[in-house]
Design a protein that fits this description.
With about 120 residues, the protein is mainly beta. The chain is built from no helices and eleven strands. Strands 2, 4, 5, 6, 9, 10 and 11 form a seven-stranded mixed beta sheet that branches. A four-stranded antiparallel beta sheet has the order 1-3-8-7, with no helix packed on it.
Length: about 120
Amino acid sequence: QVQLVESGGGLVEVGGSLRLSCATSGFSLEYHAIGWLRQAPGKEREGVLCMTRGDDTTYYADSVKDRFTISRDFVKSTVYLQMNDLNHEATGVYYCAKVPWYSDRGCDDREYHYWGQGTQVTVSS
């Protein structure tokens, strides 16, 4: 059974950092592109960044390029999102999601087929 479980969210001040975790099970992490998505209050869910099977990072939002990093630990079957220099725009529910192993579209956000339940991140002044 495929599972993705996010954790690590919370309340952080502007300029602070946070590391989110996505514990995965039921599939082999190294064969799937994995992404992080965000749903801000009153907005639709959107992609933040993604890592392909080949360890290339795709950024859906230019605003996070120098501040957010995605990484994977195959031993722990966990994906991380390190977020630095946070601003109010980062507030929202963060989801990790996976792409099917057979997809050849890398981090195309139309390819996600499993998502976690999300973890709330709130950036305060």
